[in-house]
Amino acid sequence: MRIEYDRDTCIGMFQCVAEWDEFERDEDAGKAVLADSEETDDGVFVREVPDGAELDAKFAARSCPVDAIAVYDDDGEQLIP
User: What keywords sit in the KW lines (predicted)?
Assistant: First the structure.
């Protein structure tokens, strides 16, 4: 499972931080940070979801009020927009 986070879309509500500890607050930028992620050419941060953290990652994505977080299964199908 893979999670993608569009930091430019983030409005800093930090609801994802409350749902999954892999999201952290960046108070200076007013945005969340996805730990251990890599930035793609289009500015999206991507990482694999560790085994056992799938539910937390899904909750983090669902909690985002601006849909800045998406979750994909291993086949690349989007599970959470």
Answer: Electron transport, Iron, Iron-sulfur, Metal-binding, Transport
Total number of domains constituting the chain: 1
Q: What CATH number is given to the structural domain containing 56? A: 3.30.70.20
Nearest Cα neighbor of 37 from 61, 14, 6, 75 is 6
What separation in angstroms does the CA of 16 have from each of 1, 35, 44, 60?
Answer: 17, 12, 16, 4
Q: Which domain range does residue 68 map to?
A: 2-80
Q: What is the DSSP string of 21-34?
A: TTEEEETTTTEEEE
- The three-class DSSP label of residue 55 is helix
